[in-house]
Design goal:
about 400 residues, alpha/beta, Aspartate Aminotransferase, domain 1, Aspartate Aminotransferase, domain 2, 7-stranded mixed beta sheet, transaminase activity
Length: about 400
């Protein structure tokens, strides 16, 4: 029997593939310092866990509305209204099991086969995967180190064609840690309005910001109605396993996205939504402390990487990733590319990182090599991982 052709177009998230190798090596007795998974190494705040357990105890374990509990959507609407400076109605909110379904549903609802979708590259690999899966054409927009991992706006404008239907943005970014400026967002907004385009704005790292103020394209004039804003609880509240996210969009599209939820998952688990409600309404101290700890780790890992010959690393403004340039290290030590370096560091240095190609194929004309490290791990592990990287590269020299 033949499978559907679209399955061959489906990509993956390579971090989990590298993690599987790491777990195998650990099972074999190896000590591996892993920088590969983007998951906070903190526990879900106690009051949030308690709210989830209390919801289960009072039997909040049945079906809920496909769009999410109304009390939860009201709180999300109030939160987005407050943080993005726009008026949001609960009917414009759709709750999903994690933020990924909004990426998938948003592309399904807004993009036809043959349409073109502009997305950030390097970027979260699920963007390109979903674009390909629905039969659209992925159009990568290069994030450039020389611009702090933002776009060259002249190049970005040239990507738009009569087939363009959607632009995907992510800020703060995975994998680079870059943050799009308000000026960049204003330029993209002008293009979206002029060409009548949808925008998906992935803002799951919006609270993990170290300098400046977060800006959302949905806050700009004329953009709320054409933007699908994505946020969630995995990163800010260390709730990755709870699977809880949401999208904010115009009311008409929200009805369509909710119908996709009906067809796909029926609804998001009810008791997790009560935990999310408490996360938004309750004290924010645990999240604030986590972000402060991430900032200290960021400084430690950036300084450490920049002290290793052949590596240079920008200091990211947000998320919990660094994306160092390893071009010189690859050339000096004879590695074909960052994938070869990644494999060497894993098997010879006992350090797990991800190569540039885990986040999309190289852009036309791109010659530099990069790796991604997640610093969602302890300072002790960061110190030891940096020591191992330095020793492994010196041993190769």
């Amino acid at each position: 029997m033949e499978k559907a052709k679209r399955i061959s177009r489906l990509g993956t998230e390579n971090a989990f593939e590298v993690l599987a190798v790491v777990n195998r090596l650990v099972k074999e007795g190896r000590s591996i310092v892993s920088f590969c998974i983007g998951e906070p190494d903190f526990d879900t705040p106690a009051h949030v866990k308690q709210a989830g357990m209390e919801a289960i105890a009072r039997n909040e374990t049945h079906y809920g509305p496909s769009a999410g509990l109304i009390s939860f959507r009201e709180e999300i609407a109030a939160y987005i209204s407050r943080t993005r400076g726009i008026a949001v109605d609960p009917e414009e909110v759709v709750v999903t099991p994690g933020a990924k379904p909004i990426i998938f549903h948003g592309i399904l609802a807004c993009v036809d086969e043959g349409d073109e979708v502009i997305y950030p590259n390097p970027g979260f690999p699920i963007y390109e995967s979903m674009i390909n899966f629905v039969g659209a054409r992925p159009v990568p927009a290069a994030l450039l180190e020389r611009k702090g991992f933002s776009f060259d706006l002249d190049e970005f404008r040239r990507l738009i064609t009569p087939r363009t239907k959607l632009i995907i943005l992510n800020s703060p970014q995975n994998p680079t840690g870059g943050v799009l400026s308000r000026a960049d967002l204003e330029a993209v907004a002008e293009l979206a309005i002029r060409h009548d385009l949808w925008v998906i704005s992935d803002e799951v790292y919006s609270r993990i910001l170290y300098e400046g103020e977060f800006a959302s394209i949905a806050s700009l004039p004329g953009m709320k109605e054409r933007t699908i804003l994505i946020d969630g609880f995995s990163k800010t509240y260390a709730m990755t396993g709870w699977r809880l996210g949401y999208g904010v969009m115009n009311r008409d599209l929200a009805r369509d996205i909710a119908r996709l939820e009906t067809n796909c998952e029926s609804c998001t688990a009810t008791f997790t939504q009560y935990a999310g409600l408490e996360a938004l309404q309750g004290p924010q101290h645990a999240s604030d402390r986590m972000v402060q700890e991430f900032k200290e780790r960021r400084d430690r890992i950036v300084d450490g990487l920049n002290a290793i010959e052949g590596i240079r690393c920008l200091r990211p403004q947000g998320s919990f990733y660094v994306f160092p340039n390893v071009t010189e290290a690859c050339r000096r030590l004879g590695f074909k590319d960052s994938k070869a370096l990644q494999e060497y560091l894993l098997f010879e240095g006992s350090v797990a990182v991800l190569p540039r190609t885990s986040f999309g194929r190289k852009n036309d004309g791109e010659t530099e090599e990069y790796i991604r490290l997640s610093y969602a791990t302890s300072k002790e592990q960061i110190r030891e991982g940096l020591r191992r990287i330095k020793e492994a590269l010196e041993r190769r020299a």
